[in-house]
Amino acid sequence: MDSSLMKSLLECPVCFTIPRNQSIFLCNNSHKICQTCFSLLQLRICPQCKCEYKSEEPMRNRDLEKIIAECDIEFSCCNWREGCAIEAKRTKLEEHETECDFRTVPCPFSCRRDTMFRKLHHHLKESHRS
Questions:
Q1: What pLDDT, in 10s, does the model give residues 46-96?
Q2: Which of 51, 71, 81, 121 is at a distance of 20 to 30 A from 102, taking alpha carbons?
Q3: Which one, of 54, 52, 70, 53, lies nearest residue 62 by Cα?
Q4: Residue 67, burial from CB neighbour count under 10 angstroms (0-12, 13-18, 19+)
């Protein structure tokens, strides 16, 4: 199967990424949505067909979750919402994410504020001048 077709079948239709290490939910009409996008819904209404989800946590698509877990395809970095555009296969991506410039790190000083790694220098310069 063509990789772009595979990606379009596996990705969440809301955020357009293939969900990793999370649940995939289905509405009553079997439209899928990743757990992250579902948690961001203000109203429990399917973004595709506008039907209501019947429970707080709707039915899961465990078959699709298993396919994604076993599939050797490229995934987006977990920091894609912050701006990282890296896509790689699972092992390479896990290596990348530990060093990603868009990852969140705690400030090493007393404020302990979570800051994007690429903005840490600016935070230190602005908030902790000595």
A1: 999 999 887 777 899 999 999 999 888 889 999 999 999 999 998 899 999
A2: 71
A3: 70
A4: middle
d(C-alpha 56, C-alpha 129), whole Å: 47
Amino acid at 14: V
CA dihedral 16→32→39→4, nearest 10 degrees, is: -20
Chain centroid, CA 55 distance in Å: 23
Helix (H) or strand (E) holding 89: strand 87-89
The pTM of the full predicted model, rounded to 2 decimals, is 0.75
Q: How far apart are CA 104 and CA 43, in angstroms?
A: 28
